[in-house]
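Hi R.,

As promised on Friday, here is the backbone we talked about, encoded as structure tokens. Could you run it through your design pipeline when you get a chance and send me back a sequence?
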């Protein structure tokens, strides 16, 4: 017979999932920012090289 009452661990699982998604989004945005910075640096170096 199933237990009565609230399901175990659902709150903690939801919090954990939310935190993991938060972390993954942060890493993804930092990676994108780094990529954009590198592109800007390369573009600037190429412009100086062409002059």
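Update: got your reply. Pasting your designed sequence below so it's all in one thread:
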């Amino acid at each position: 017979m199933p237990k009565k009452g609230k399901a175990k661990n659902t709150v903690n699982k939801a919090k954990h999932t939310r935190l993991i998604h938060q972390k993954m989004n942060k890493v993804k945005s930092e990676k994108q920012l780094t990529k954009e910075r590198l592109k800007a640096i390369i573009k600037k170096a190429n412009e100086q090289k062409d002059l």
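One thing I noticed while checking it: Residues 10-50 form the longest helix (41 residues).

Thanks again,
M.
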